[in-house]
Design brief:
Length: 270
């Protein structure tokens, strides 16, 4: 056999096998490096930031892609399913709308959507809101106190009338100021049971309303005992022992018995 031909055949075989190996390697690496297409489905979402109480309309809604492998319970596929319903909580842009974010159909708009069944919203003016210097925010919990100033009450006093009450609005705001900015207001709206609204209204006619902030996790209650001026006045405390001593002395007078012959006489001294 001609050695030259044999050499040419060997070189051709090497070139062919190298080219085939290179081609197959590119195909395999291409398949491994390219991510597989992920199946998605569309959900209804907010097209822009929406505040609580906003009425949902097609113009403030959009559709977003969501992975099928990541289920989203309570989400909606069609805008018409939620059009006309109001938000209970604020939403960010492109955030999917869930059933739990929405008020019941026909419950109204604005603040009314944040009032649960069986509860009431009552607004009250307080001279002492400034006393907490803007630390009252929607969603915080307070105790409500009243300082009685009534002609029928001889000694003014302060009484806790409501405990662990949720604040719905502060002034005209139903949501906290971004960044927690302090704001002094004169009117606060509280979320109350119907019977507690009666207590609040009556208390507001009897004196000054005060709010006391609670720890957000504190749901405890205490026995509400009124405090009178006499209990905090040093003058009243110092006068009390003197009255007590006089009372003791008056109930135990000194007696002196005098005997003259067959006559006896008794004299009492205070």
């Amino acid at each position: 056999m001609n050695p030259r031909r044999l050499l040419i055949a060997l070189l051709s075989a090497l070139l062919l096998s190298g080219a085939l190996t290179y081609f197959l390697t590119r195909r395999i690496n291409g398949k491994n490096g390219r991510p597989a297409a992920q199946a998605t489905q569309q959900y209804v979402a907010a097209s822009r930031p929406l505040p609580a109480g906003e009425l949902l309309k097609p113009e403030n809604l959009t559709l977003v892609e969501w992975p099928v492998k990541v289920p989203l319970p309570g989400a909606f596929r069609k805008m018409e399913d939620i059009s006309g319903r109001a938000l209970v909580y604020p939403m960010a842009a492109r955030q999917p709308v869930l059933e739990g974010y929405l008020a019941a159909a026909g419950s109204g708009i604005g603040l009314t959507v944040k009032i649960p069944d069986g509860m009431r919203a009552a607004s009250v003016r307080s001279d002492e809101v400034i006393g907490v210097a803007g630390f009252l925010f929607p969603g915080c919990h307070v105790d409500v106190l009243v300082t009685f100033r009534n002609e029928a009450i001889s000694s003014p006093g302060t009484q806790i009338v409501l405990q662990d009450v949720e604040v719905l609005t502060v002034g005209q705001r139903a949501e906290p100021e971004p960044g927690g900015k302090a704001e002094n207001v004169s009117v606060v709206t509280l979320l109350l049971k119907p019977e507690d609204t009666q207590k609040l209204v009556l208390a507001s006619t009897q004196g000054s309303i005060h709010f006391v902030l609670r720890n957000g996790a504190d749901r405890g209650r205490i026995a509400a005992v009124p405090v009178r001026v006499g209990e905090i006045s040093s003058e009243a405390r110092s006068a009390a022992p003197a009255v007590a001593r006089a009372h003791v002395a008056a109930t135990h007078p000194y007696e002196v018995e005098t005997i003259t012959g067959d006559k006896r006489s008794t004299m009492k001294f205070e």
